[in-house]
Amino acid sequence: MNEIQKAAGIIQEGGLVAFPTETVYGLGADALNPYAVARIFEVKNRPTFDPLIVHVADIRQAEILVLKFPEKALKLIEKFWPGPLTLVLPKAPIVPDIVTSSLPTVAIRVPNHLMALELIRESGRPIAAPSANPFGQVSPTTVDHVRRSLGNKVDMILDGGPCAIGVESTVISFTGKEPALLRPGGVPLEDIQALIGKVIQAAGSSDKPQSPGQLEQHYAPKTPLVFGDLPSELPAGKKIGLLALQKPKALDGFAAWELLSEKGDLKEAAANLFAAVRRLDEKGLDLILALPAPPEGLGRAINDRLARASQKRPGI
Ligand code: TXA
Ligand code: MG
User: Fewer Cβ in 10 A, N or C end of the chain?
Assistant: First the structure.
């Protein structure tokens, strides 16, 4: 039996498998088994009002879970699946409430990663999977990240190397009159709009998010992170780390830095983002200063994650 067959057996038996996708590592369970899905929430310490994405191998498998596909959703599916695009669609009764936090909708995507696809096919089940990290913390883009935070809490971890995209999927909802962006991610908004026209920005607020990915506090390192432009003067007497796309004019005054892409390539920057945040977090700094990326393409997803990482989490 190979690794994937073993992992598929664990999924069929209601266990948890951490597996690679092109975006971030996922913490997977059989989406049709509410007990297995309940364990995801337990292991992640995730509030059950935050629904999960269901991963399928192809649109045929999605058809079992969805009542109806609007025309524009089908266009996106044709172009971007497999890939980092999640669609929120009206759910079929077969999808357990715990997966969708009792919403009448389900979030679905086909990951663009061979190991993930083989796991889904081999198990024969749709796989519910959030990112494989404790709730609110930095998402995992390498197997080592998963091992360190959830290593002893899952039944198996599949190693697929570092994730190529590095930020989570773009989430588009088809539940309102017009398609709405719930979370910027791996597929640039511009590419989506080029195909289906207007996409509204869902008005997310921290107390009543349409998508809990809109929670203001998320993706956060332990070190306080400030997201904004380089100040003219750095606060004195503090160990400050810099997170930036490219090298600023001077690095004087910084105790450490991470440059996400020397050539200013937003794809490369996204792929490096979460690992860079983790490295800075391990340096014993007083503060991480994160400079915004240009607000276009994958820059939107990068800025979204950094803005959320910069919120102070109450009580922690
Ligand atoms: O790239 C990804 O999407 C990764 C990999 C593992 O596939 N998964 C991921 O899952 O980021 P998670 O749980 O960290 O984020 C799921 C997002 C959350 O913002 C959640 O609120 C939203 O999808 N979501 C899930 N179901 C929804 C629904 N029915 N309506 C609105 N938002 C939903
Ligand atoms: Mg997550």
Answer: N
The identity of residue 88, as a single letter, is: V
pTM for this entry: 0.93
Please write the tens of the pLDDT for every residue from 226-247. Answer: 999 998 888 889 999 999 999 9
Q: Which residues line ligand 1 (CB under 6 A)?
A: 21, 23-24, 26, 50-53, 84, 86, 88, 100, 103, 105-107, 111, 129-131, 168-169, 171, 173, 182-183, 211-213
Quote the ligand 2 centre to 199 CA distance (angstroms). Answer: 23
Q: Which domain range does residue 252 map to?
A: 225-309
Q: Which of 169, 201, 233 is the last residue of a domain?
A: 201
| Structure tokens that stand for 26 in this block | 């996922």
Residue to probe by mutation, ligand 1, list 53, 119, 142, 146, most atoms within 8 Å of CB? 53
Tell me the three state secondary structure of residue 212. Answer: helix
Same domain, 174 and 292: no
Q: What are phi and psi of 156, to 5 degrees?
A: -165, 150
CA 249 to ligand 2 centroid distance, Å: 34
Q: Which of 43, 35, 1, 46 is nearest to 18 (CA)?
A: 43
**Per-residue confidence (pLDDT) for residue 252, from 0 to 100:** 87
- What is the reported pLDDT for 114? 98
Q: Please report the pLDDT score of residue 205 as a whole number.
A: 40
Instruction: Give the number of the atom of ligand 1 that is nearest the alpha carbon of residue 186.
Output: 1
Distance 52 CA to ligand 1 centre (A): 5
Distance 87 CA to ligand 2 centre (A): 16
How far is 206 from 216, CA to CA, in rounded Å? 6
How many independent structural domains does the chain possess? 2
